[in-house]
Each structure stands twice: as structure tokens, then as C-alpha cells.
Design a protein that fits this description.
Blueprint: H1 14-26, H2 32-35, E1 52-54, E2 57-59, H3 64-72, E3 77-84, H4 93-103, E4 110-116, E5 119-124, H5 127-134, E6 138-141, E7 144-150, E8 164-172, H6 182-188, E9 193-197, E10 213-221, E11 229-234, E12 237-245
Antiparallel strand pairs: 1-2, 3-5, 3-7, 4-5, 6-7, 8-10, 8-12, 9-10, 11-12
Length: 256
């Protein structure tokens, strides 16, 4: 016995039916190019470079002129890394730009792009703006520090070897009159990027329970030789302070 199909009844009037028929006749399907918003490849397959085999992998040569144009477009770019304080939540790109807008009020059109692993790319509209933001070695953010460095070719965070770490540093031999945040920060800037002073050190003089050492969290490049004694100078006087590193991570100078 054959299957029977029941169709729902419709209450379309003659005019409604004609409108539907007219709509079906006049509507045209959208082309693929009109649907996608990115660039559509219009290069014939025959114009692409020939693929070859090197070892057991495919290899292709990219268009050299296009690469040169890409490098030229990056002449006003910088790379940056945000070092977050321990326990803090990283900002989104949108929130990061909002924070930097207040720090860079004189900078014209600029953008920031996340590259992953705490790294960002900054694009500026002029060399003057690049020089302005580069005049400061590190920009203080809420619970973090932004370090900027020159844009370089073939920069890929995924392949970078981790050569920096956050380390608590104790400054011994610093008299109490020097326990103002900018002074320990200045001392530690000679060996890394200061991030913050610990809670006990930052207490007011009437609440401070000890004065044995100043403790500062520093972003440290562990490929460099560590300094354990620093000469501190002011007008008419100079003295040495001793540096102690807490829980330095194990690091191989051979393979990094």
C-alpha cells in the first residue's frame, strides 16, 4: 500500500498567491563574492608558483613583491608584551586599548592586535607617534606593565622561547628614607622591568613592621648575567645595595 502525504491547507487569497509567485520570480541568489566580506582570490591557478617537495614536505615560494609591500606596511609598527602581575586577570584587547587611550592622548590614529601569549602588535600612523610611545620603556597598566620593542620580521609568539620571568627581588642595605616606590623601581630598572612593590613594603611608615629589605616584583630577562650588587648614586653621595633573587626558575643557557 502506497504511502499518503498530507499537506496543510493554506488560506492564501488570490492576491497573496500572486505576491508569493512574484517574489519567487524576482529574487535572485546572492553570489559567493557578495556573501563573503574578505578578499576573494581571482588569481588563475596557472599563475601560482609551482609546488615542490623538500624532504617529505610540500614547499612553495611566496610572491616576493607582495612580501615587500607587507614589510613596508609595517614600518610604523611596534611589538609589545604585557606583563601581568601574579593573580591578575589579563585585559581584553578592547579594554587594553581603553586603558592606553588615557595614557596616549596625543597619539593620532593607532590600533592594537593580539598575537597570543601576551604579545601584541601596535600600528601607528606616523613615525613621530612611534617615537613618542617608545620614549617610555614601560607603561604602567592596572595590575600590569606594557613593554614595547621594535617591530621585527618573522615575529611569531608561538615559536618564541620563553626567556623572561617574574621574580621577587629583595634590595638589602636601603635606608628607610629611600623607601619611596619610585626609588626601588629606579634601582630595579637596572636589572629588569619593575612591576609592583609587595604589600608589606608599601605600608605607611607608621604601619611598617620591618625594614630589613625592600621587596619588588620584576620582569627579568634570565638570559642575561644576574647582578647581585648595584651602586646607587645621588648628588654628593653613593652607596652599594645587595640584590637577592627569590625562587629563580631553572634555565639552560645552552638551549634557552
Amino acid at each position: 500500500m502506497g504511502a499518503s502525504f498530507l499537506f496543510p491547507k493554506t488560506n492564501l487569497t488570490g492576491s497573496n498567491q500572486s505576491k508569493l509567485i512574484h517574489k519567487k520570480k524576482t529574487s535572485t541568489p546572492k553570489s559567493f563574492a557578495s556573501v563573503v566580506s574578505n578578499s576573494v582570490c581571482d588569481i588563475p591557478q596557472s599563475q601560482f608558483p609551482q609546488v615542490c617537495i623538500k624532504g617529505n614536505r610540500l614547499a612553495i615560494t611566496i610572491p616576493g613583491e607582495e612580501y615587500k609591500l607587507g614589510v613596508e606596511a609595517c614600518k610604523h609598527h611596534l611589538h609589545g608584551r604585557v606583563v601581568w602581575s601574579k593573580g591578575s586577570s589579563p585585559l581584553t584587547v578592547v579594554n587594553l586599548k581603553e586603558k592606553l587611550l588615557s595614557l596616549w592622548p596625543s597619539i593620532c590614529k593607532w590600533s592594537v592586535t593580539s598575537l597570543g601569549k601576551g604579545f601584541f602588535k601596535f600600528a601607528f600612523s606616523s613615525l613621530e607617534d612611534v617615537q613618542r610611545v617608545r620614549s617610555v620603556s614601560a607603561w604602567n597598566l592596572p595590575q600590569g606593565v606594557l613593554k614595547l620593542f621594535p617591530w621585527t620580521k618573522d615575529f611569531t609568539p608561538a615559536t618564541l622561547k620563553q626567556t623572561s620571568t617574574q621574580v621577587w627581588i629583595r634590595i638589602h642595605g636601603l635606608s628607610q628614607e629611600y623607601w619611596r616606590p619610585k626609588i626601588p623601581f629606579a634601582i630595579d630598572s637596572s636589572i629588569g622591568t619593575p612591576i609592583c612593590i609587595d604589600f608589606a613594603t608599601n605600608k605607611l611608615v607608621f604601619e611598617r613592621p620591618f625594614g630589613h629589605f625592600v621587596r619588588v616584583l620584576v620582569d627579568l630577562n634570565i638570559t642575561r648575567d644576574l647582578s647581585y650588587r648595584i651602586l646607587v648614586e645621588r648628588i654628593g653621595f653613593a652607596f652599594f645595595v645587595d640584590i637577592e633573587y627569590e625562587k629563580l626558575p631553572e634555565f639552560c643557557s645552552h638551549c634557552s
